[in-house]
Amino acid sequence: MVVWLTIAWVLLWGDLSIANVVSGALIGIVVTAVFPLPPIIFEGRVHPVAVARLLGWFVVDLVRASVQVTALALRFGHQPRNAVVHVDLRSRSDLYLTITAELLTLVPGSMVIEVRRSTSTLYMHLLGVRDDSDVDRARAHALAVEERVVRALASSTELAEFRRIRSAEVGGSPS
């Protein structure tokens, strides 16, 4: 972390000098000591087919949202309505929460503006919301992205727990 912070410091100053490298390293040491990041625990395993599916759907979401945002931008005289939506994720993993939030934010037209780690809740800003059904679709889409992330990276124990929670929500049997 200190090395990356030092590199960022040198890049911000735009000058590779001993003074910048040393001061960047010292600032990096202070920042990592004063503001330590919580550890991200990964107990799962990578499922190649599910990762490919996750990336494929991400590309589809990216293209679809880009077309929708372009259409909104080209509608002159139309003021798009926005919304802030909360989504209660099913997984309690910091890693899956972070990856889900990043994938949702990278897609045009939606941005995660707040994350509540304690409750695994995302707050998303949505562009071009017409009615409540758009909000429901966005919430369902966020949960689908989370499910793809979990299927791509979870251990069998985490996946079983995720399926149990999901089936309890919908009142069905685990799939």
Please list the strands of the largest sheet in the order they lie side by side: 1-3-2
The number of helical runs is 6
Share in helix: 55-70%
Q: Gyration radius, to the nearest Å?
A: 20 Å
Rounded mean pLDDT is 92
**What is the N-to-C succession of helices and strands?**
HHHEHEEHH
**Which word captures the global form?**
globular
Query: Proportion of β residues?
Result: 5-15%
Distance between the termini: 40 Å
Question: Strand count, sense and closure of the main sheet?
Answer: 3 strands, antiparallel
> How many strand segments?
3
Number of separate structural domains: 2
Instruction: Extract low-pLDDT stretches.
Output: none
Q: Which structural class fits the helix and strand makeup?
A: alpha+beta
How would you sum up this structure, described in words?
This protein has 175 residues and is an alpha+beta fold. It has 2 domains: 2-34, no CATH class; 48-170, no CATH class. The protein is built from 6 helices and 3 strands; from the N terminus they run αααβαββαα. The protein has a 3-stranded antiparallel beta sheet, with helices on one face. The N and C termini lie far apart (40 Å). The mean pLDDT is 92.
Name the features.
single chain, 175 residues, alpha+beta, three-stranded antiparallel sheet
SSE map:
Layout: H1 2-13, H2 18-34, H3 48-74, E1 82-88, H4 94-106, E2 110-116, E3 121-127, H5 132-153, H6 156-170
Task: Provide a concise account of the structure shown.
This protein is an alpha+beta fold and 175 residues long. It has helices spanning 2-13, 18-34, 48-74, 94-106, 132-153, 156-170; strands at residues 82-88, 110-116, 121-127.
